[in-house]
Amino acid sequence: MKNTSRLRSLWLVLGGLLLAVILLAVVIIGYDTVRVPSVKAEGMPFLEQDQSLVTVNTTRIGSDDPVETAVAVAQMIYPVTEEENVPGAVILINRANLAEGLVAASRVQHFPVNAPLLYVDENSIPTLTRQELLRLKPDGVPMDRNVQVYLVGTIGDAVRQEVEQMGYKTRVLTAPDPITLSVVVDDWTSTQHGDHRNVVVIANLDHLEPAIPSAFWNAHMGDGLAFVTDQGVPQATIDLLKRRANGPWLYLFGDESIISTETARILAQYGQVTRMPRSAPADVSAYFAGFKDIGGNWGAWFWQDSRDFGWGISEAGHNAIFVTLDGPGGWQNALPATTLSHMGKHASVLIIEQDTVPDSVSGYLKILKPYETAPREQLLNHGWIIGGEGTISWKDQTRIDQMLDGYLAAPQGGQ
Q: Which residues neighbour 2 within 8 Å (Cβ) at sequence distance 6 or greater?
């Protein structure tokens, strides 16, 4: 009787082990099935000429075509050679809509998603974007049911179906307008972080370009974003702000000509208001690159988060991303470079103009210029030049190179 009982126990143990092995195999197989088979990166000969334009202090990424630039940025940051350099997901945005792009870069790109931005049209995927989707093989976001591709904004169902036919799991974040989209994505983001971020960027939907520098910061930090208009503060935005405990910290991107004093007064009823007091995008970018706001946030002392908003870069030894908004690709060529703020060298953006470096930017770069007695780690600056020569000329690139250079004298004895 004892032998029978022992035999039964042994079979139960063996059966349990076999079941565990089978379950583990199912999990492993199931995990692998959400990964697309390896696809070798396609050559991009159209970028070779632009990307060979390198100086000691600058590196050029992309071309004058925004689709190509988005792919070039993704390939630089996510080579997909090791588990550590595979993205968690990919974000697809409609290349015709800046407001939606700002929402995607500001609220989705940060961790836990960890994703580059790629361009699609409303009802189709450009061939180069499709090839890059297959190459990237995103891992999926564990906190969001292993979603691998996010479609943000006005993107038709045909695009979603094509992405899913590639074998990817998708999530669609859409709304009838950018103001509502910011609310939808804000609520979704709160599920990933466990709360609504108490720091919120305010952008004017009718004057969006001054807010572009904020997207680079938010790609880096994942802070909030909400829209106002020339007519005032939409009710949807007010509702978004009310979700913050004890009121948010609001950062207005633009002076009174961009976001009116009356609008700022209304916003002040719902949170603490601070303004980036410039109107031209280049001037805003230079001001914000040096701006820093640090302090206590709302909450009880034992769980209070610190408030830390803005790059606050005022010394040498840093990176900067140089973009233009008036080149052949316009803002479309600049926005994918937000990934360099997220996963590159965490660089701020400086907006220049074709054939000129605005005084605000050149003045800021003088602050960053290394000097001979600076700490050794502060001797080197670096600039990422986004776009081809039609976007930022070789002449402007070399001018920027000189502005970043330290002109350090050689040590005695020529060593």
A: none
The dihedrals phi and psi of 199, each to the nearest 5 degrees, come to -100, 125
Range 262-281 burial, b when 16+ CB lie within 10 A, else e: ebbeebeebbbbbbbebbbb
Q: Specify the pTM.
A: 0.87
Identify the CA nearest to 112 among candidates 151, 145, 77.
Answer: 145
CB-based contacts of 324, cutoff 8 Å, min separation 6: 333, 334, 351, 352, 353, 354, 387, 391, 392
Tokens 């996510």 belong to 78
d(CA 178, CA 154): 9
And the tokens for 288?
Answer: 């914000």
Instruction: Please report which confidence band the pLDDT of residue 409 belongs to, taking 50, 70 and 90 as the band edges.
Output: very low
How buried is residue 53: exposed, middle or buried, by Cβ count under 10 Å (0-12/13-18/19+)? middle
- Environment class of 199 (CB within 10 Å of its CB; exposed 0-12, middle 13-18, buried 19+): buried
Three-class SS of 105-142: HHHCCCCCCCCCEEEECCCCCCHHHHHHHHHHCCCCEH
Q: Could you read off the pLDDT of 351-376 as tens digits, one per residue?
A: 999 989 999 999 999 999 887 777 76
Joined tokens for residue 222:
């994942």
Q: How far apart are CA 153 and CA 179, in angstroms?
A: 11
**Per DSSP, what are the bridge partners of residue 92?**
118, 151
- The number of beta carbons lying within 10 Å of the beta carbon of residue 297 is 15
Q: How far apart are CA 251 and CA 233, in angstroms?
A: 14
Confidence class of residue 126 from pLDDT cuts 50, 70 and 90?
very high
When computed from its CA atoms, the radius of gyration of the chain, rounded to whole angstroms, is: 24
Structure-derived torsion over alpha carbons of residues 102, 108, 111, 112, reported in degrees to the nearest 10: 180
Q: What are residue 172's DSSP bridge partners?
A: 151
